[in-house]
Design a protein that fits this description.
This protein is an all-alpha fold. It is built from 16 helices and no strands. Helices cover 87% and strands 0% of the residues. The two termini are 28 Å apart.
């Protein structure tokens, strides 16, 4: 039986409803990991370092899709909860059309700036050349990437999370097959990896247009729309936390790379790339649950169902707590085999990656609360509080930690910095949840 946003959610129903979203995020991360494995093992350490070095820049340009998706979904789900389905569909259609046009503009600017930005960050020689070749191909697919990210939220709001999972799996399988062909078999290097990723993003971004553009049984359908400054403003302000989170993570990623070049050279950048690839799978569980549960929260907030809102928050925090402990244990157990998979061909790189992995895994114990807390306030249409949590978690605390701790602990300080930042972000999130309790009656 199909689960609806208006249902009462038990633990079982909440997990069933959010599972497709969690799987979507995990699968997206897994095919990113496969991308990294092929580049690292078939194109070499310099190519792998180059891909990870330029990735933060590419993510900054593409992450507006998260803003349109999460901010727009919260607004649309609330409007559905208020009973105005026609208006919700107009909002949905406008945001999709606007994203395509905006993505094209971002792609054009990104291609023009990629070389000077990579050089400014410290890339030079062959690594600079690899950054530019990889990035220019990826940037062409920016409109599709934005759509792919926002449809992950819109499928859930449309009560079709399983279909969203199917599209994500199709996109991921496309990427992995093309990686095997273009990078593994044909030895296409970073250009082959970039083409594989760009084509997979086209699948993930444009296939949903066919579904939502045709007659369907979901809550949402693409139709006529006009420019709506009010919807755009509310979406941008409400989704600003997710935008800030992704931009901040990318900026911090750049800073990590700069610090690692200084303290550990090219090996440090490659080791950090491995940690980022693998940690995305773990963090994807928290993000998937947060994204999957957000439309439910928005709907019951719009319907003023305070008892259900309280129940959803309580159950969600229990689920996140249990998952956090399990992920730390799993991270510690998988540190050695995963480090071997990415860096087994180079003893020095393997040793550095393994050490970083053991330390970094502890951060999974704290990261879930802040990720969920930010999404929770986005779902309540409180963009400023959500943005504050994301801003502090992904930018302020991490920058302070990664600048200061290496002075004391050398390279280990870079790995320790994520633990300190996540712990502080958890404390801030708890303060906001307690402080806003009376206002939202949860």
């Amino acid at each position: 039986m199909q689960i609806q946003l208006s249902d009462h959610f038990t633990y079982k129903r909440l997990l069933r409803f959010t599972l497709p979203s969690i799987m979507m995020m995990i699968f997206t991360s897994i095919y990113g990991v496969v991308d990294g494995i092929f580049v690292s093992n078939f194109a070499g350490k310099t190519s792998f370092a180059a891909v990870n070095f330029i990735m933060p820049y590419l993510m900054i340009l593409g992450c507006f899709g998260f803003m349109f998706g999460t901010g727009g979904s919260a607004l649309i789900a609330r409007t559905l909860g208020e009973g105005d389905r026609e208006r919700a569909n107009r909002m949905f259609s406008f945001l999709v059309y606007f994203s395509i046009a905006f993505g094209a503009c971002v792609a054009f600017v990104g291609v023009l700036l990629i070389k000077p930005v990579a050089a400014l960050m410290g890339a030079e020689g062959e690594m600079l050349s690899e950054c530019v070749r990889y990035g220019r191909i990826i940037l062409i697919a920016t409109p599709a990437f934005m759509l792919q990210m926002e449809f992950q939220s819109f499928f859930i709001t449309a009560e079709r999370p399983q279909l969203g999972l199917f599209v994500t799996v199709a996109s991921g399988v496309t990427n992995m097959m093309l990686d095997a062909l273009l990078v593994g078999l044909l030895r296409g290097g970073v250009e082959g990896a970039a083409v594989a990723t760009a084509v997979s993003q086209a699948v993930g971004g444009f296939v949903p247009l066919i579904y939502f553009g045709a007659r369907n049984k979901s809550l949402l359908r693409l139709g006529k729309a006009h420019f709506d400054a009010g919807t755009l403003w509310r979406t941008a302000t409400n989704g600003s936390s997710e935008l800030m989170s992704n931009i901040s993570m990318s900026l911090v990623g750049m800073l990590y790379n700069i610090q690692l070049v200084r303290y550990a050279g090219e090996d440090g950048v490659a080791a950090y790339g491995t940690l980022m690839y693998v940690s995305m799978i773990f963090i994807a569980i928290f993000i998937g649950f947060a994204v999957g549960s957000a439309p439910v929260i928005s709907f019951h907030f719009g319907a003023e169902n305070h008892s259900e809102l309280q129940s959803l928050l309580r159950k969600s925090l229990v689920i996140i707590g249990v998952a956090s402990v399990l992920m730390v244990l799993l991270g510690e157990c998988l540190a050695m085999p995963l480090s071997l998979l990415f860096a087994g061909y180079d003893a020095e790189l393997y040793s550095l990656t393994l050490r970083g992995f053991y330390v970094y895994s502890v951060s999974f114990l704290f990261s879930g609360v802040a990720i969920y807390g930010s999404s929770f306030f986005t779902a309540l249409n409180n963009g400023p509080v959500s943005a504050a949590i994301s801003f502090l978690r992904t930018l302020v605390f991490q920058i302070a930690a990664v600048m200061l701790l290496p002075l004391i602990f050398d390279v280990d300080g870079i790995w320790f910095s994520i633990i300190v930042a996540e712990l502080m972000a958890t404390a801030v999130t708890v303060i906001f949840l307690v402080g806003m309790r009376k206002k939202y009656h949860y």
